[in-house]
Amino acid sequence: MPIRIGLLPQVATAHWVSHLHIMALAALFPVLPQLFGVGYVELGLALSIFNILSAVAQAPMGFAVDHYGARRVLLAGMSLGSCSLLLIALLPTYTWLLIGMALAGLANAVYHPANYALLAQGIAPAHMGKAFSVHTFAGFLGGAVAPLLLLGVASASNPRMAFAVAALAGFVALALLLVPGSGITQVRPATTVQADSGSEAVRQRSLWSPMIASLTVLFVLLNLSTSAIEKFSVASLMQGQGISLSWANAGLTAFLFASAFGVLAGGALADRTKRHGLVAAMAFGLAAALTVLVAWSGLSDLALVVVLGVIGFLTGLIAPSRDMLVRAAAPKGAEGKTFGIVSTGFNVGGALGPLGFGWLLDHGQANGIFWASAVFMGLTVLMTLLQEAAIRRARHAVAAQQAAPR
Known about the structure:
The chain is an all-alpha fold. It contains 15 helices and no strands. It has a single domain (7-186, 205-396), classed as MFS general substrate transporter like domains (Growth Hormone, Chain: A, Up-down Bundle), CATH 1.20.1250.
């Protein structure tokens, strides 16, 4: 009997791998300065190169998804990403680290436009919210596993073997996507209608609407808010507060796993409210306050793990609503392009953050990592509330227009 694998498990697996690869370098930060003979700024530069290449390639990959098909582009990206980490494992010098992270950044640009296009085209609209929740949960889970898996391998063997294990995970997932007759092979791209130059111009303008632009900026702030904790908290806690590696890593693991389960809770919450902006603002506001607590007061080891877990849960709550907003803003048949454009916000934040966060660590301002995260969370809350107010004004204007006598 032939093996059959559903579309959502396959796409979720691809997202799991993408976040494992995104976190590979950051998860190994505490042991990499000795391996490569560099400081945190240099390691931050490698992360910035990853994100810059991903940001530059994200929108073109979205167009490629809509033109060549999401499955082909996803397979190519996963292959390139796995090979790039294997390259770092085989050639462990700083120069090859930069080359490998550049290639991994190109590969990372594939996942969001390809995955979301596959879901938009292959999942029934009635189940789209749950599908987005499962997809995002899988990605967060991949990031949560990274510190445990990769640092564990590095401790038992060496960092080179940890990069090799991350590459192997990609190759295994690639094999699942190649199963004949599986869900991903049955997705048919949305049909596009030949349009005249006028309607094509309207469609292109819709891709650069104020809503899509504001969502892109929101993605920048979201990345800066969470990446400080995801990628630099272990080094920050060890250097700034004297926390041991095991407890600091436990705190990061709690943050990442709680973020994943926060996504599932956010999916259920998103189905029960229309005030997505207000819910997101409340969650991020509380997360910001708790992040200040981590930066300001010397919590015990166990309390630190608990607080970081709560922060992770709160930051995960908004992810499903975020994805539904992008889908709602996407023109029909242009889901890949839209998610490609908006997702560049993550990469812009990912390119800017590591250099600044690495500078803080190298200059003895380790607690500044958490202060910076709290500031960006506050800015995210402010922007979310402004968007919520704008949406309410638009709804009132439409209601008033419909109620006006004709």
